Each structure stands twice: as structure tokens, then as C-alpha cells.
Amino acid sequence: RHKRVKLGREFVVVMLPEGKIRVKLGKLGKRVVQISPEYDDCHHAAERSGKNFRDIYLRASEQARQEVEKL
Q1: pTM of structure
Q2: Which of 14, 44, 47, 64 is buried most, with the most CB atoms less than 10 Å from its CB?
Q3: How far apart are CA 28 and CA 7, in angstroms?
Q4: Which residues contact 46 (CB under 8 A, 6 or more apart)?
Q5: pLDDT tens sequence across 52-64
């Protein structure tokens, strides 16, 4: 049987041309193990810009990952 581990959470904000996107970081100790852009932020940015939701979500994830790697 596996023991469930609750990840610590931290938020960062990334700036895309379509606007600010909040991104939730799931942390195990000090290590970031999950990056999840906020759905509502991506949805609103896609609606405002007319761009694809998935594209915005993926670019926000990648930008957050790059910023985390700098730390």
C-alpha cells in the first residue's frame, strides 16, 4: 500500500503577451515536482486574445519551469 504525500504549494506569476498567469508549484521539500497554471487565468487570457487555451497553458508552464530553474 502506498502512502499519500501532500505537496507543499507556492504560487508564482508569469507574464505572457496575453496577460498575467498565476502558476501553482507543487513542492516536495524544496524540489518543484509539479507546475500547474491556473485554469481561469489561462481561460480568460485565451478569451481576451483569441488565442488557443492549450497554447497559453503550455507557454505559462514552460515559462514557470524556466523561472524555477533559475532559483
Answers
A1: 0.89
A2: 64
A3: 6
A4: 18, 52, 53, 56
A5: 999 999 999 999 9
Distance CA 13, CA 34 (A): 15
Q: Report the C-alpha gap between 55 and 21 in whole angstroms.
A: 13
Contacts of 66 (CB under 8 A, 6+ apart): none
**499519500: which residue's cell?**
4
Write out the chain in H/E/C secondary structure.
Answer: CCCCCCCEEEEEEEEECCEEEEEEEEEECCEEEEEEECHHHHHHHHHHHCCCHHHHHHHHHHHHHHHHHHC
Helix axes 53-70, 39-49, angle to 10 degrees: 120
How many Å apart are CA 32 and CA 20, to the nearest integer?
A: 21
> In degrees, to the nearest 5, what angle opens at C-alpha 39 toward C-alphas 21 and 14?
15
